């Protein structure tokens, strides 16, 4: 019989079938033997054997479910930050010249809050939800201005109530919304517990800020204020809606922070008069909820508070370091751009080879990588310069045209100043190269040749007129200085 792929496949399946038949027969024999033995054995042996079979059969399933089961969304995932390492990083950045005052202030605030031993509560909510009225209900002697005008609280105000320090935060929808929202979020990050005050169901803007607060992994209590203006049925509906939107993660309580209500009095003569009288505040449900949260695990609350402030300090340090690096990178690009212009003014025959072979391009790439602690070797530098140089050969005429148009802004120069025009072109080339390298090391933490080439092309062909004019002004100034020295 001639062997081919079909006959081989038939042989394999036949052997597998025979093996399966033999395996079934062996297993059947073993099962029957075990069954016969169990029939003759005492009852407790049968029960023990059956229990062992059930445990062995279910154990793999239980292990699989345990490994694949997602973590509960209610479990707070806190980023643990080493305080000593963060302080060492602050000192290191200070030595570089970075302004670390914002991070220093957070570390100082952490030490002060630790020393006070108090629990910090931050009141969060839109303007006119009753934050200041709540403070007044807790601490009648507190000097807090309350007004119906939106956004009367313009800064965070701290008030002490027993072992609690309560921070009245600005309404996040008041004037200067972005700045005030950031202030409120930062203060909430420093607190032990956040109280989110509401007048009604969570609106879309409030849900956005609720999600931001939820990402801080802070214990939270949602308080529906001014419940006296709703019927019992309406209160239940609003409470159910809030609970559903927050996925039952946090307690929802009903309170009334007081205020005034209008009273109409009917007199004996049939006339009516209108007046106002204070409403009795009812905030005990909120205090009870806060007390429950605090008493549940106070040590854990302190750890969460510490982690929140340290994370805030780390973010501010990273932001300061990023801004410092950005400024240094821009200075580095400007310095090498100026060197390229000087080199072009000294050269009669312009060309794109400077980007590939020139030491200025190599120094520019290396200095930017060193600034962002990105390891780089000469081969990588050569690849970047080669890739950008290849794109430059196809767009040299366009770059020269942009440089010539920039020189038209200076009367008496025009496009006839060939040496200056090429110097401006070199300025555009090196400025675009520097910004492309900076984009790569900033966004990816490495020197990505493909991304650098793409960004270089976008920067070069999209060079703004103002940039070209600035470089032309620089080239003219350097040219005049050169003439004076000669």
C-alpha Rg, in Å? 37 Å
Average pLDDT, all residues = 78
Coarse structural class: alpha/beta
Give the CA-CA distance, first to last residue. Answer: 99 Å
Task: Count helical runs.
Answer: 17
Identify low-pLDDT runs: 70-80, 144-153
Strand sequence of the main sheet, in spatial order? Answer: 2-3-1-4-5-6
**What is the overall shape?**
flat
- Beta-strand content: 5-15%
What's the total count of β strands? Answer: 8
Largest sheet: 6 strands, mixed
What is the string of SSEs from the N terminus onward? Answer: HHHHEHEEHEHEHEEEHHHHHHHHH
How much helical structure, as a percent, in the residues?
Answer: 55-70%
Notable traits:
8 strands, 63% helix, 17 helices, 486 residues, six-stranded mixed beta sheet, single chain, alpha/beta
Characterise this structure.
The chain is an alpha/beta fold and 486 residues long. 63% of the residues lie in helices and 9% in strands. It has helices spanning 5-40, 43-68, 83-96, 101-116, 131-138, 177-190, 204-214, 232-245, 284-296, 298-346, 353-357, 359-371, 378-393, 396-407, 418-444, 449-461, 465-485; strands at 119-124, 157-161, 164-168, 193-198, 220-224, 252-254, 260-266, 272-278. Strand 2 (157-161) and strand 3 form a beta hairpin. The longest helix is centred in the middle third of the chain and has 49 residues, at 298-346.
């Amino acid at each position: 019989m001639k062997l081919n792929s079909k006959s081989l496949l038939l042989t394999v399946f036949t052997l597998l079938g025979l093996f399966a038949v033999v395996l079934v027969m062996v297993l059947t024999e073993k099962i029957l033997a075990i069954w016969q033995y169990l029939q003759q054995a005492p009852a407790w042996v049968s029960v023990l054997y059956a229990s062992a079979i059930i445990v062995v059969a279910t154990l793999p399933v239980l292990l699989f479910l345990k490994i694949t089961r997602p973590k509960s969304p209610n479990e707070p995932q806190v980023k643990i930050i080493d305080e000593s390492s963060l302080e060492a990083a602050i000192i290191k950045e200070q030595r570089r010249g970075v302004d670390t005052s914002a991070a220093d202030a957070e570390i100082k605030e952490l030490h002060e809050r630790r020393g006070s031993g108090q629990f910090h509560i931050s009141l969060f909510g839109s303007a006119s939800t009753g934050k200041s009225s709540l403070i007044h209900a807790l601490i009648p002697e507190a000097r807090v201005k309350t007004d119906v005008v939106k956004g009367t609280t313009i800064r965070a105000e701290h008030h002490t109530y027993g072992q609690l320090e309560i921070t009245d935060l600005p309404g996040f929808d008041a004037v200067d919304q972005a700045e005030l929202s950031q202030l409120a979020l930062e203060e909430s990050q420093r607190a032990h517990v956040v109280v989110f005050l509401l007048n009604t169901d969570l609106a879309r803007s409030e849900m956005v800020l609720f999600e931001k607060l939820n990402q801080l992994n802070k214990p939270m209590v949602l308080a529906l204020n001014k419940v006296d203006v709703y019927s019992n049925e309406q209160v239940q509906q609003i409470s159910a809606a809030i609970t559903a939107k927050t996925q039952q993660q946090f307690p929802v309580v009903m309170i009334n922070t007081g205020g005034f209500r209008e009273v109409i009095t009917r007199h004996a003569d049939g006339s009516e008069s209108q007046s106002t009288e204070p409403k009795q505040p009812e905030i005990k449900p909120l205090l009870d909820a806060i007390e429950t949260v605090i008493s549940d695990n106070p040590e854990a609350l302190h750890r969460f508070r510490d982690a929140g402030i340290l994370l805030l300090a780390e973010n501010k340090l990273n932001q300061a370091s990023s801004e410092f690096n950005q400024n240094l990178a821009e200075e580095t690009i400007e310095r090498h751009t100026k060197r390229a212009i000087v080199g072009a003014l000294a050269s009669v025959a312009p060309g794109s080879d400077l980007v590939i072979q020139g030491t200025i391009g190599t120094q520019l790439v290396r200095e930017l990588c060193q600034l962002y602690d990105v390891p780089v070797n000469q081969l990588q530098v050569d690849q970047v310069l080669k890739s950008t140089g290849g794109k430059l050969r196809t767009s040299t005429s366009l770059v020269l045209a942009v440089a010539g148009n920039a020189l038209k802004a200076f009367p008496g120069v025009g496009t006839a100043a060939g040496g200056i025009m090429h110097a401006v072109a070199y300025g555009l080339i090196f400025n675009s190269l520097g910004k492309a390298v900076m984009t790569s090391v900033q966004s990816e933490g490495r020197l990505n040749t493909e991304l650098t080439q793409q960004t270089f092309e976008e920067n070069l062909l999209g060079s703004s007129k103002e940039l070209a004019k600035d470089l032309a002004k620089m080239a003219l100034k350097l040219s005049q200085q050169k003439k004076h020295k000669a």
